[in-house]
Amino acid sequence: MTDQSTRAASHDPGDATADSLDRRTLLRGSALAGAGVLAAGCSTAQAGTPSPAAKPDSARFNPRSWESVRAQFPLTRRYAHFSAFMLASHPAPVSAAIGHFRDGLDSFPQQYGLGMDDFRRSDDVRKALAGYIGAKAEDIALTDSTTMGIGLVYGGLDLKAGDEVVTTEHEFYSTHESLRLRAQADGVVVRTIKLYDDPAKASAGQLVARLRAAITSKTRVVAVTWVYSSTGLKLPVKQVAAAIAEINQRREDEERILLCVDGVHGFAAEDVTMQDLGCDFFMTATHKWLFGPRGTGFVWGRAEAWARFRPVVPSFSMPAFTGWLTGQPPTGAPGDLATPGGYHSFEHRWALAKAVEFHQAIGKARVAARTRSQSDQLKDGLAKLKHVRLITPRSAELSAGIICCTVDGLTPEQVVQQLFAEHHISAAETPYRESFVRFGPSIVTDPQEVERVIRAMATLG
Q: What are phi and psi of 439, to 5 degrees?
């Protein structure tokens, strides 16, 4: 294990005063402008110009037919899209919802999208997400990305100098940098461990044991990822949560360890609820495996976990505005107060409920099974190729939709380029110090395309 130490770091829906505030009162004197969010992703080698896609036909959508599901996406059929999860193509119902809200904002922005209208539509989004993850809407804060959620949580947790955060060397940049910034600001200690040596040979018991061994009496947060985009390894979060719960039984409330999870590559690829996972905070984008509107995400937290959080960005919520206008500290749902204020891409945020509805129409369990079956098919095929080394574990317990591998004699970049140019397959390279070839079967791919990948990989090297 590497131990690298760094210096760091009840719902109240409102009262009569809040109910009496009309739109004009809430917005009086407000001249705030929103800020854009720059989302960086892994680049895929491009060779040539893809052919135009067919226009989706939502009128004949049959959620029981996988071909009909695929037909909802405007993706070009010239290519097999095994990196579609990186930045979602919008299915027809989501595009229609975005267009509907955009048209309203464009036609009369002052009357269409501000104040009470945003509160109501954002509440609808929270309710949709709450039903999808098995949680309370009041415990969900809306964000623009996983990175925004990670930064909010690690920046806002009630930590003091000397408190420890245990994380791993396998985390994505967003977690490492958020923790570094917190360490720099407040003297929190970040301890970074090696969670596994060879991901393909990892076991659930080993992963849990290494995390547990890293916890000390000063540990207050464990910061991990559900499905590592670097290798495709899926952390057994429920088992980690159980181990931490056992430790917490012997601690006072203020010393209890919070389990915080970057869940972006498990969310909507796996059929679980927040209760199934057992974590304290869950941060994700929805423009990946859910194929939700680009630039949307959320943070979910237990009520007890939110109690140890302090907002770091002013909220444009009813409780926040009520507190400001009445000169009182804001009181209200933690999800409201933790949601960053400012003006956002509202047409995308409000359309998120349609993405949830789209997945629920297909069926969460069916989506997860479809992803799982193609993932297993691809791993089984790649494992038979002598010049290919699987990086991702074979077992369903320790893997989800992401599959990483290497090809003898070729760099990941060369593999991706050849797949794209010679076989019309869109794959990617992992954006880490040690890079691998990465595939992501999903609801926009099918078993025939998986076989196409296996045949193509057999020709390389």
A: -120, 155
